[in-house]
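Progress note, sequence design subtask.
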């Protein structure tokens, strides 16, 4: 049974639109009831033991306006993801929640190094997550729903393990497409931990043809994006909302700085996460969030939920907010979804089939 995403009307036509979720953290998308059950099994104390109350606690805690405090909420989700069984269950449910949201391609990003407390090693946690993802895909298929998923392995920028995680990504990607590892990321607190500190890992990944996305321009400013693009040569930018610091635009008129112009001209995809960004003090409101202005300027914007649990959100909710509060049209939603398919860490022929067979006909069947 697939559940309607939280905060979404069951009859909202946006639910029926085909979607792509590129910036979607596995440990930020657990079901509250699952956290409660798994926490009870391992004796982990939670701030609330009723699903609705726990969901509200996560949202309230994430609304602090501070990225560091926002990240502290993950202590409870990662705590219940330290066993093979816990990882499998969380990954399986993550897929089913994507399907319920109308998502046909999703990349689950997560940090394997944060899931070793139960005695598993890095390869074992990747294999457990993959087993869960595949179980979710199979269960969805049994209900007539098709979805493709991949893993993005994330290194924590405040730690010193990026090379080990890069080697892990290379190792599993080289096993073949069936392993599901499609790319690499760094995440965590930006200030004081620049992307260039992990250059050796990025160089190894480039040499092994593993795609990159880098969290940048979320808490730190344009200098973070500059390093991600010009030093580390990332294929995508995780968030990137603060690219607006390198432009002087009023009512669509003005001038772009060199960095913003490069990101625009090269069509480097921006994995924007409106609701999450408001929680970490970017944008003020959905209407004033940079995503709309960047869209109007032609940047390769994509729409993403970031952390479904912490933001109480989903792809459908993010799209509905943009329509209702920022004046987006169905054409705008389709354009951003085309950007996401184009930016997906998938072979070109697969992306082309998704556009022709899923995205374009799917949008034609729905009127928002």
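Output:
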């Amino acid at each position: 049974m697939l559940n309607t995403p939280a905060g979404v009307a069951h009859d909202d036509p946006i639910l029926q639109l085909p979607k792509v979720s590129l910036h979607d953290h596995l440990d930020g998308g657990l079901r509250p009831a699952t956290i409660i059950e798994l926490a009870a099994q391992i004796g982990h104390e939670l701030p609330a033991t009723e699903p609705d109350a726990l969901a509200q606690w996560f949202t309230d805690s994430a609304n602090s306006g501070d990225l560091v405090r926002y990240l502290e909420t993950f202590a409870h989700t990662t705590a219940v993801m330290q066993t093979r069984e816990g990882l499998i269950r969380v990954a399986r449910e993550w897929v089913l929640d994507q399907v319920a949201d109308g998502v046909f391609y999703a990349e689950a990003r997560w940090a394997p190094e944060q899931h070793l407390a139960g005695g598993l090693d890095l390869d074992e946690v990747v294999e457990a997550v993959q087993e869960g993802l595949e179980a979710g895909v199979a269960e969805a298929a049994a209900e007539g729903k098709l979805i493709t998923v991949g893993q993005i392995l994330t290194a924590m920028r405040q730690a010193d393990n990026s090379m080990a995680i890069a080697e892990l990504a290379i190792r599993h990607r080289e096993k073949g497409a069936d392993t599901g590892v499609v790319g690499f990321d760094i995440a965590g607190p930006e200030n004081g931990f620049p992307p260039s500190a992990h250059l050796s890992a990025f160089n190894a990944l480039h040499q092994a043809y593993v795609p990159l996305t880098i969290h940048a321009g979320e808490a730190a400013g344009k200098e973070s994006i500059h390093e991600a693009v010009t030093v580390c040569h990332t294929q995508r930018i995780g968030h990137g909302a603060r690219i607006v610091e390198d432009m002087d635009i009023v009512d669509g008129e003005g001038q772009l700085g060199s960095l913003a112009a490069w990101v625009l001209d090269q069509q480097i995809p921006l994995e924007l996460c409106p609701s999450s960004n408001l929680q970490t003090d970017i944008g003020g409101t959905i209407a004033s969030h940079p995503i709309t202005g960047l869209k109007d300027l032609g940047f390769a914007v994509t729409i993403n939920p970031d952390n479904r649990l912490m933001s109480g959100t989903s792809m459908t909710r993010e799209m509905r907010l943009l329509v209702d509060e920022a004046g987006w049209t169905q054409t705008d939603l389709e354009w951003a979804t085309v950007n996401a398919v184009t930016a997906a860490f998938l072979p070109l022929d697969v992306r082309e089939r998704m556009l022709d067979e899923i995205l374009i006909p799917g949008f034609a069947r729905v009127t928002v």
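Strands lie at 19-25, 103-110, 148-156, 181-187, 213-216, 236-239, 247-250, 253-256, 270-272, 301-303. Work on this subtask will continue into the next period as scheduled.
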